[in-house]
Design brief:
FAD/NAD(P)-binding domain, seven-stranded mixed beta sheet, 519 residues, binds flavin-adenine dinucleotide, 18% strand, alpha/beta, five-stranded parallel beta sheet
Length: 519
């Protein structure tokens, strides 16, 4: 039935923007509500005193996801974004003073490893081969599809796919990332580097399923990219596309409640200023758990969602934004300054819920690629340290000064940045509480829900709500998970599911682009 109402999207993060663009490209009328004055959510920007910092994501992988989203509207990505490929992908600094560059080329990497850890190259090649298999399996069963649990993988269509049994065996269910990595590469320093792909999803390598080892191949295969203008350029490009497609983008418009009818079907939203807006369907790009707890309180649907599983937040983090008067030649664009002991580090963050005593610092030095981020000769240094999600008693206004010292000492000791503090001309920071409040996430989690559980840790809440008709979930805390490409893919899947449901009559047909809507 034609409803003559638009589709509403709650939240203008990457997932929300992707959903908006895809639905509009398919001819639907869309209105997007974002509580903040900017679009892009965590992909925000900080500009001050001649420095420009990406505040959240800095590492962009899997550009094919962006190509597909822009392709929905018949657009070429390069009309909107100037992407530069970065190689080496990361530089790793170890406590013993050694460094190791991760390069995308397998042959070059094998040669480097032969010098760095004799014997590790052959294991690395085998690891990458396995990683490719896992990446292929993810493409085949998990990606671009509304999957909410292991059972969704085994619907009748999947049972007919050739090679299912072999794929299941290759998944190595029950095995952790840490165990899988060490099965191929026992060298402790190389293993520490490979473990770090799980930090893209804010989870412990000991607790995460080995299928996540597929991330290594996704990164080496498609590369790491820097959008000129910073990763901020990604939401800017998406918002431009959505605007061109006629999406009504309403910033500074928080949503207080998703409205449901007596059969608990999503029928609209109520803004924080009390306006009620009738909608054909709703996509929530707000954190999936907070959507149910705060926007759908006291509904039977929210209770069912809560009962389905335990929702453990991924890790949080502290970011220091340091405007420097100099650059550090030893750094490349992306750097990991590794902890002295990954077991101690991950145990503290993921098991004990306390900041690691000697943390890994991710350091982004973008001036090497785009000098305009800082005054001449300077650097807009970004330092991210993962911390536990917010626990009772955590108060980062008290904890930050001491932890800042730990971070600066670590960079001096392990990355040779001993004069760092004297070179600071501008300083700002982001704490777990800031992350929680700015982006309305669960307990300050950077990457949505943790991927813990070696059997089902990879599964996130499905994109088509299992509990409420007319509600769809997009973003890092919904399927397929966190990180820029996955949040974008999540937005596409939610939009595609909604579009399919409108065609098959499962929900009322939304208004078409350009059509007047019923109030
Ligand atoms: C410090 C940091 C570093 C990161 N580094 C990387 C990286 O290098 N590479 C990478 O790939 N990923 C990284 N990530 C993760 C990545 O940023 C996220 O996975 C991704 O941006 C999440 O997108 P999302 O669609 O879930 O939306 P979010 O960014 O979570 O945005 C959701 C939006 O919804 C809005 N909203 C919520 N509730 C309401 C409401 N009730 N009404 C209206 N609006 C609402 C919020 O204001 C927000 O704008 C990082 C994140 C952080 C914070």
């Amino acid at each position: 039935m034609q409803s003559n109402k638009p589709i509403g999207i709650v939240g203008g993060g990457l997932g929300g923007l992707a959903s908006a663009a895809v639905l509009a490209a398919r001819g639907h009328k869309v209105v997007l509500f974002e509580k903040s004055p900017w679009l892009g959510g965590k992909a925000a920007v900080l500009e001050a005193d001649g420095y420009r910092f990406d505040m959240g994501p800095t590492i962009l992988t899997l550009p094919s996801v962006l190509h597909k989203i822009f392709g929905e509207a018949g657009k070429k990505l390069d009309q909107y974004l100037d992407l530069v490929r970065l190689d080496p992908q990361w530089r790793c600094f170890y406590e013993d003073g050694t460094t190791l560059d991760l390069s995308e080329n397998e042959g070059a990497m094998a040669q480097t490893l032969d010098r760095f850890a004799p014997g590790a190259a052959a294991g690395y090649r085998k690891f990458l081969k396995h990683s490719q298999r896992l990446s292929d399996i993810s493409q085949k069963y998990f990606f671009w599809r509304d999957i909410g649990s292991i059972w969704d993988m085994f619907n009748s269509r999947e049972m007919l796919k050739p090679g299912l049994l072999g794929d299941l065996l290759a998944l190595g269910m029950g095995r952790s990332v840490a165990s899988c990595v060490r099965g191929y590469v026992p060298d402790t320093k190389v293993a520490q580097m490979l473990d770090h792909f799980t930090q893209y999803v804010g989870s412990s390598p000991d607790l995460s399923p080995s299928v996540l080892c597929g991330i290594a191949h996704m990164q080496t295969g498609e590369g790491i990219w820097y959008p000129m203008g910073g990763t901020r350029a990604v939401p800017v490009a998406l918002a431009k596309l959505a605007g061109q497609l006629g999406v009504d983008l309403r910033t500074s418009t928080g949503i207080r409640r998703i409205l449901t009818d007596t059969s608990e079907k999503a029928i609209g939203v109520e803004t924080e200023s009390g306006e009620k807006i009738a909608l054909a369907a709703v996509i929530s790009n707000s954190d999936s758990v907070r959507t149910h707890r705060e926007l759908l309180p006291h509904t039977r649907a929210a209770k069912r969602f809560e009962k389905r599983r335990k929702y453990e937040p991924a890790c949080s983090g502290v970011v220091l934004y340091l405007g420097l008067e100099r650059r550090y030649e030893q750094l490349t664009h992306h750097n990991f300054v590794f902890s002295r002991d990954p077991d101690e580090e991950f145990h503290a963050i993921y098991n004990e819920g306390t900041p690691a005593p000697d943390p890994t610092c991710y350091v982004c030095a973008p001036a090497i690629t785009e000098a305009a981020v800082a005054p001449p000769g300077g650097e807009a240094l970004y330092i991210l340290v993962h911390t536990p999600y917010l626990r009772e008693g955590h108060d980062w206004s008290q904890m930050l000064p001491e932890y800042r010292r730990v971070i600066l000492d670590k960079l001096a000791r392990t990355a040779g940045m001993s004069d760092l503090e004297d070179r600071i001309r501008f300083e700002s920071f982001l704490t777990p509480e800031d992350i929680q409040n700015r982006y309305r996430v669960l307990k300050g989690a950077i990457y949505g829900l943790a991927s813990h559980g070696t059997f089902n840790g990879a599964f996130k809440p499905g994109n088509r709500s299992r509990d409420i008709s007319g509600l769809y979930l997009s973003g890092g805390s919904a399927n397929p998970g966190p990180g820029m490409p996955m949040a974008l893919m999540s937005g596409w899947i939610a939009a595609d599911a909604l579009d399919q449901d409108s065609k098959s009559g499962k929900i009322d047909e939304p208004a078409r682009r350009g059509e007047a809507v019923c109030a």
